[in-house]
Amino acid sequence: MNVVTVNHPLVKHKIGLMRRGDISTKNFRELAAEVGSLLTYEATSDLATETVTIEGWNGPVEVEQIQGKKITVVPILRAGLGMMDGVLEHLPGARISVVGVYRDEETLKPVHYFQKLASDLQERIAIVVDPMLATGGSMIAAIDLLKAKGCKDIRALVLVAAPEGIKALGEAYPDVTLYTAAVDSHLNENGYIIPGLGDAGDKIFGTK
Ligand SMILES: O=P(O)(O)OC[C@H]1O[C@H](OP(=O)(O)OP(=O)(O)O)[C@H](O)[C@@H]1O
Ligand SMILES: O=c1cc[nH]c(=O)[nH]1
Ligand SMILES: [Mg+2]
């Protein structure tokens, strides 16, 4: 699997801010969207463009536009919603495919509870967003659904990835590209990423 760690100074700085133990809900939420925006910039850097002629201020002019534009953004509920505003800044017309998956606290296995997917997934690029790739189970469960609908170009965007999750996702779906702001050390005995961000869903939604 292709793993792109986005090492831009803005990304590193913002992830550093997110690691503060005393961060407020407001700041965590804002930063999740901002890093989501920066990851999207990177994850769309290979989109094909085509040259078209438009009517400019001084007559016809050749400009480039993105070819096709068939994209679906796939937030994994809940925490993936926290990155959505940033992702949609760059892809305002993208279709949204919502997938609900939570991780069982005891078994750490993903539990799928909701899906509402865009049409024509076999023709769309899917950008799956979730702040945390821990064991990888939730991301794999979401991609299982997209693959079952024939989706061929899948990009996963996460804020923090654990080596364990990268390995699992790469074994399940070697053709997926993972964009992450950080690759952390390991998972603890409760399946939390160390040093990580803590429980991203709770921090974004202000729950505990
Ligand atoms: O890689 P995994 O081991 O599957 O863990 C990562 C998942 O855990 C978190 O969701 P959580 O289950 O806390 O649900 P929430 O977003 O509703 O809080 C996170 O947002 C990922 O979806
Ligand atoms: O570290 C982790 C692991 C799973 N889910 C989270 O929100 N954080
Ligand atoms: Mg959570």
UniProtKB/TrEMBL annotation:
Similarity remark: Belongs to the UPRTase family.
Catalysed reactions listed for this entry: UMP + diphosphate = 5-phospho-alpha-D-ribose 1-diphosphate + uracil
Cofactor: Mg(2+)
Protein EC: 2.4.2.9
Note on how the cofactor is bound: Binds 1 Mg(2+) ion per subunit. The magnesium is bound as Mg-PRPP.
Record Pfam families: UPRTase (PF14681)
Notes on activation and inhibition: Allosterically activated by GTP.
Highest rank taxon of the organism: Bacteria
Keyword Phosphoprotein on entry: no
Binding site for 5-phospho-alpha-D-ribose 1-diphosphate: 78, 103, 130-138, 199
Name of the encoding gene: upp
Positions annotated to bind uracil: 193, 198-200
Phosphoribosyltransferase domain span: 6-207
Function, as annotated: Catalyzes the conversion of uracil and 5-phospho-alpha-D-ribose 1-diphosphate (PRPP) to UMP and diphosphate.
Stated name of the protein: Uracil phosphoribosyltransferase
GO MF term (any one): uracil phosphoribosyltransferase activity
InterPro entries named among the record's database cross-references: PRTase-like (IPR029057), PRTase_dom (IPR000836), Upp_B (IPR034332), UPRT (IPR005765), UPRTase/APRTase (IPR050054)
Pathway info: Pyrimidine metabolism; UMP biosynthesis via salvage pathway; UMP from uracil: step 1/1
Keywords on record: Allosteric enzyme, Glycosyltransferase, GTP-binding, Magnesium, Nucleotide-binding, Transferase
